[in-house]
Amino acid sequence: MVNKPVRFQRPSGDISGIARKARLTKLPMTKPMFQQAALIGVGLIGSSLSHAMRRANLVARITACARSEATRATVRNLGLADEVFEHAADAVHGADLVILCTPVGTFEAISAEIAPHLKRDAILSDAGSVKTAVIRDVGPHVPEHVHFIPGHPIAGTEFSGPESGFAELFDGRWTILTPLPDADEKAVAKLKAYWEGCGAMVEIMTPEHHDLVLAVTSHVPHLIAYNIVGTVSDLERVTEKEVIKFSASGFRDFTRIAASDPTMWRDIFMNNKEAVLEILGRFTEDLAALQRAIRWGDGEALFDLFTRTRAIRRGIIDAGQETPAPDFGRKIPHGNAGPGKTS
Ligand code: NAP
After folding, report:
1. Is the pLDDT of residue 27 over 70?
2. Atom 31 (ligand 1): residue with closest C-alpha?
3. Distance of CA 43 from the midpoint of ligand 1 (Å)
4. CA-CA distance, 308 to 288, in Å (whole number)?
5. CATH architecture of 17-204
6. Is the N or C terminus of the chain more exposed, i.e. has fewer CB atoms within 10 Å?
7. 78 conformational bin, left if phi > 0, alpha if psi -120 to 50, beta if neither
8. How are the residues of the chain apportioned to helix, strand and coil, as percentages rounded to the nearest 5?
9. Is the entire prediction scored with pTM above 0.85?
10. For a substitution probing ligand 1, which of 72, 111, 174, 264 has the most ligand atoms within 8 Å of its CB?
11. Are the C-beta atoms of 23 and 310 separated by less than 8 Å?
12. What's the CA-to-centroid distance between 301 and ligand 1, angstroms?
């Protein structure tokens, strides 16, 4: 039999008055919440944060760090930061908000580098897609006078780099914060209001629960997509040309997900092993049950499952997290999939 689904708490969705006003009206806040925000890494998430912060006037000044000269040049050309540095330590100097927006595997080295340069009472957060490993890697480096509050925006596309960001990325999407039990309440409230100002809804949960939820909703689905696209590309009796020519929407959607950044996704699987393996175990049991249903011609079992899964999709649309439009509302120019939400 197919396993029972994992149950999660319903999100509360309450947002602070000022942030709600800024989000709904897209009017800038009259007074910036932070004097200086430092973005460590300016890819899809870092550049989208820059656009969103500027849209709502959340910070007076943005500093950034990018490792390659090409990215620093793009940051300057697009005006994504007031000043961009090669070294993270320079970017965090004087910042009252620091957000790590590089792949999760880089966090430990970066936090060791910036720790001595962090301002007293600064908020240090991140956008990383896993949370227990981030606390393990960053936590020991954080000075006592700094508020470390891990975070994860559940918003993204399969595109990377500083040109791929846009101000609306976080609008109506959830951001999860996983503060430590002794976190300063005022700092947590301020970071929550900041994300709401960026357009997001905020949920607070433990890092362990975050990692389990994300293993189910994002990490394992990505692994399945990587796997099916890999399997198809290894097939010998169907040519690659045929796969591309006859790809129906199911496979096309898997290829969109499987086009996500390899470094970021390698780091996610290296750092959320436990939860991913737990969900994968259940997934493979369910897959075996489906295999058996097909082998024994058990149409009723298949129909029952497909009816149940259809209701889940309906729930996602009703919650405003997806569109009922064909092809998930994406324009598909010249047969290529356009942007879609992936994590
Ligand atoms: P991205 O577009 O690939 O950008 C990554 C940025 O990190 C680039 O500026 C890159 O610099 C820099 N970087 C990469 N390796 C580095 C290293 N070793 N040292 C210093 N800088 C390095 O990535 P992203 O999609 O914005 O993701 C950033 C973070 O957000 C990740 O932790 C990811 O887990 C999380 N996240 C992503 C999504 C999503 O859907 N994409 C959603 C939610 C959360 P260069 O440009 O110079 O290479």
Report:
1. no
2. 103
3. 5
4. 18
5. 3-Layer(aba) Sandwich (3.40)
6. N
7. alpha
8. 55, 10, 35
9. yes
10. 264
11. no
12. 42
pLDDT tens-digit map of 257-288: 999 999 999 999 999 999 999 999 999 999 99
For ligand 1, the distance from its centroid to the CA atom of residue 333, given in whole angstroms, is: 27
- Round to whole Å and give the CA distance between 135 and 342: 24
> What percent of the chain has pLDDT above 70?
86
Model confidence at 21: pLDDT above 50? no
Scan for tokens 């540095």, then name that residue.
85
Q: Ligand 1: distance of its center to the CA of 41 in Å?
A: 6
Average pLDDT over residues 201-227: 97
> Which CATH number applies to 209-335: 2.60.200.30, 1.10.150.650, 1.10.3660.10, 3.40.190.10?
1.10.3660.10
Ligand 1 atom at shortest distance from the alpha carbon of 161: 2
Higher pLDDT, 1 or 46: 46
Question: Which residues are within 8 A (CB) of 60 and not within 5 positions of it... i.e. 6 or more apart?
Answer: 32, 34, 35, 36
Retrieve residue 74's tokens: 């793009």
State both tokens at 150: 């891990």
pLDDT digits over 293-333, tens only? 999 999 999 999 999 999 988 888 888 877 776 555 555 44
Pocket probe for ligand 1: among 42, 44, 107, 137, the residue whose CB has the most ligand atoms within 8 Å is 44
Domain boundaries, the chain: 17-204, 209-335
Nearest-CA residue for atom 23 of ligand 1: 43
Residue ranges around ligand 1 (CB below 6 Å): 41-46, 66-68, 71, 101-104, 106, 127-129, 152-153, 156, 160-161, 261, 264, 342-343
Torsion of CA 59, 165, 160, 277, to 10 degrees: 70
